[in-house]
Write a structure and sequence with these properties.
With 171 residues, the protein is an alpha+beta fold. The chain folds into 2 domains: 61 residues, Rossmann fold, CATH 3.40.50.2300; 95 residues, Winged helix-like DNA-binding domain superfamily/Winged helix DNA-binding domain (Arc Repressor Mutant, subunit A, Orthogonal Bundle), CATH 1.10.10. Helix content is 39%, strand content 18%. α4 packs across α6. The radius of gyration is 18 Å and the shape is globular.
Length: 171
């Protein structure tokens, strides 16, 4: 019930919100609304009334999830998120900001398919719109730098007409 828009619309139109844990607090708790908010990337959805203890616990849980891993390793691919370094077989790669962010998104969500829509929204702003072909171009460039054969990928897999995924590393 924000003036001029709702929180779900803000999640969709403000790309900066994709990088912070957003918790909806609302008096409106219909299942469809909660599901839409979570699908748009909300970390949680809290319906009034609630206790301060519950709110604190949900904030702490969202922040723990947000912290994520400090590194990622899959086969010869290694990523140090804190240092923003990517290497394959010990060889450091030089990635553009968009290539790195694409790889970061895919690896932070390893094991999950990220749709073209999600990737477009997370990689480009409204003033610099993206499209599926633009995503494909960046994936192609990234695969080339990683030495990943699209016919037999080791790192970036295509989910035809849906998006891309990086497999979860063996733990």
């Amino acid at each position: 019930m924000l003036p001029g828009a709702d929180g779900i619309e803000l999640m969709r139109t403000v790309p900066e919100l994709a990088d912070v844990p957003v918790i909806f607090i609302s008096a409106y708790g219909r299942d469809e609304t909660v599901a839409r908010a979570l699908e748009e990337g909300a970390a949680d959805y809290l319906v009034k009334p609630f206790s301060p203890t519950e709110l604190t616990a949900r904030i702490e849980a969202a922040l723990r999830k947000r912290a994520g891993p400090a590194t990622f390793a899959l086969g010869a691919l290694a990523i140090d998120y804190g240092a923003r370094r990517v290497s394959v077989g010990g060889r450091a790669l030089r990635l553009t900001a968009t290539e790195y962010e694409l790889l970061r998104l895919l690896t932070v969500h390893a094991g999950q398919v990220l749709t073209y829509e999600v990737l477009i929204r997370r990689l480009w702003s409204e003033s610099e719109p993206g499209d599926p072909d633009r995503v494909r171009t960046f994936v192609k460039q990234l695969r080339r730098k990683l030495g990943d054969d699209p016919a037999r990928p080791a790192y970036i897999f295509n989910e035809r007409r849906v998006g891309y995924l990086v497999p979860a590393p063996d733990v």
